[in-house]
């Protein structure tokens, strides 16, 4: 791992590097004022929490924990309300209990939540009927309605995003520590959802196993009111795309004197913005949060090595997670050489599978969708390849919602293209619905622990 000398980092040093996917604000003065305001507002998360997440991720590398990173493709201001957040949390918690039980490992739960408001786009503009409008770039930048006015970037949305992230996180913290996440409660939801999969006795077996485990703990005196059983941690994460927002949220941690991006516990760099000499890598290398990097099928191995060396020069365990999103077929020939090379070079990397973004396609009705079958297939392959290479399959990164949407086809209800119109809600990528997500957790249980 030859290291080149790096320039001095400051929270604004990224500004002299090429930055992809940044909005063009119509009035840069308004934007500067907004960012200044934001930089005085309280941190969303504590540096200490981000350090705990880093330790949890280090355990993944030892094979003792499993990553479940999940949530919206793009959070929507209009969905910042209690029942919606509650449903999403309910699914993540259910999945986590199923996976913990089957894998006999701790599940590190990381939401794509409380700040996932900015989206990279393949095209700057979009044709709607006869008019060409700027692309929707996430609620923190513009609005999804297809008019010139709605699509104009508005810096006030940055501030609104901050406040909505705060409100979301407040409810998440209340839910996860206030008894709502109690194991017996989460299990009761799983018992209810298993009815949807009556064709699969394997799932019922798992659910009754969990029930017995709870009864056993109760019998030996570990009551459901015990904080170990009725409190959970859900860390937050989002794509660190909008560098002005991330810079304004970056502060020195008074305990350690280190810089942390306080907008979320974990930040990741998308596949489209991870240029080794680009602004996103420059910004992220200076903050001490655990970091993710997405890796799509177009990766160049030397770039991945340079990114790893820049983001994690001390090769700290738990600092760097690489999230591969190669597609259910391409993973076969694209993942093995990547794992081999990173292992040979001695990089400490937590490997996570995003089976969503390499499997998106447009159907005959011009809807963006994904097949449940492809999602599952990429995960199965991911596990098989890691096993063959002697590396650790660390977990999954999913786009899902707690609602009953119809955006991905397949799953036990066998949704077809024709059914997608029933409740197709996403402004961005198609998400697994609650039932598909829980079903995937049951499948993951067998993948992790095939016995
Ligand atoms: C995403 O995670 O929503 C995303 C845009 O991913 P990627 O960078 O992998 O395309
Ligand atoms: Co997405």
Give the CATH level 1 class.
Alpha Beta
Task: Report the span from N to C terminus.
Answer: 39 Å
Rg is 21 Å
- Coarse shape: globular
Kindly report the name of the CATH homologous superfamily. Aldolase class I
Mean pLDDT, as a whole number? 94
User: What would you say the CATH architecture is?
Assistant: Alpha-Beta Barrel
Q: How much of the polypeptide forms β-strand, as a percent range?
A: 5-15%
Pick out the low-confidence regions.
Answer: none
Which fold name is given in CATH as the topology?
TIM Barrel
The set of bound ligands, ions and cofactors reads: phosphoenolpyruvate, cobalt (II) ion
Main sheet characteristics: 8 strands, parallel, barrel
How many distinct folded domains?
1
Q: Give the % helix.
A: 25-40%
Secondary-structure element order, as H and E? HHEHEEEHHHHEHEEEHEHEHEEEHEH
Structural class: alpha/beta
Strand order in space, largest sheet: 1-2-5-8-9-10-11-14
Strand element count: 14
Alpha plus pi helix count = 13
